[in-house]
Specification:
Layout: H1 3-22, E1 25-31, H2 45-60, H3 66-75, E2 81-88, E3 95-102, E4 105-112, E5 118-126, H4 132-143, H5 148-159, E6 162-171, E7 174-183, E8 186-193
Antiparallel strand pairs: 1-8, 2-3, 2-6, 3-4, 4-5, 6-7, 7-8
């Protein structure tokens, strides 16, 4: 191995180590059509593919990223953190639907994916209105060190693409971030287990 190759290998190892230290533990990337993007097309596989292709094209033509949409929504209320975000390009103006958690309230925001403006105001409801499992998941979100915005950055690097949706999921009793990434013409679902999540 030449000196240049050894130097590049050391730089890559250092960069990967830094990424792993900053990232939530275990990133699992799977390819396919994540269930979050399935449309109600009565099981017609061709119609599903066409609907997803249209959604991806609208997403690619949007000037606001998912990270920007989360930042816009979080800035509306001091101390808010994003619990769930998704792109919706099905009807009319493409938007991001963002749910943020602030103290004992969930805020729902609709952010224009082209301009970054808030569409139609915002709605809030108390955590007490959620079912027990959702309240537990959101309580865990407040207790872990990592945020959805960090998970989105890690998922985009792991899947070599741009995130189109993300949120909390509980699988086999463990709380994870689930991020759907558009990578080329594929959709990849990245599951990240935050350190300390129970």
């Amino acid at each position: 191995m030449t000196t240049a190759k050894r130097h590049i290998s050391r730089l890559l190892a250092t960069a990967l180590s830094a990424l792993l230290i900053a990232a939530p533990a275990r990133a699992i990337v799977s390819t396919g059509t994540p269930t979050a993007l399935h449309r109600d097309t009565d099981g017609d596989a061709d119609a599903d593919r066409r609907a997803i292709s249209r959604e991806i094209e609208r997403f690619r033509s949007s000037s606001i990223s998912i990270s920007q949409a989360m930042s816009i929504a979080e800035a509306r209320h001091a101390g808010a953190t994003t619990a769930d975000v998704s792109f919706d390009g099905a009807d009319g103006v493409p938007v991001y639907r963002v749910k943020t958690l602030q103290n004992d309230r969930i805020w729902r925001h609709t952010i224009n994916a082209t301009t970054g403006e808030l569409v139609g105001g915002e709605a809030a409801f108390p955590l007490a209105e959620l079912d027990h499992e959702d309240r537990d998941n959101l309580a865990a979100l407040g207790a872990i060190r990592h945020r959805l915005a960090e998970a989105v950055r890690v998922a985009e690097r792991a899947a070599s693409g741009k995130a189109i949706s993300g949120g909390l999921v509980r699988e086999r009793g463990r709380l994870n971030f689930s991020i759907v990434v558009v990578s080329g013409d594929d959709l990849k679902e990245v599951t990240l287990e935050p350190p300390g999540a129970k």
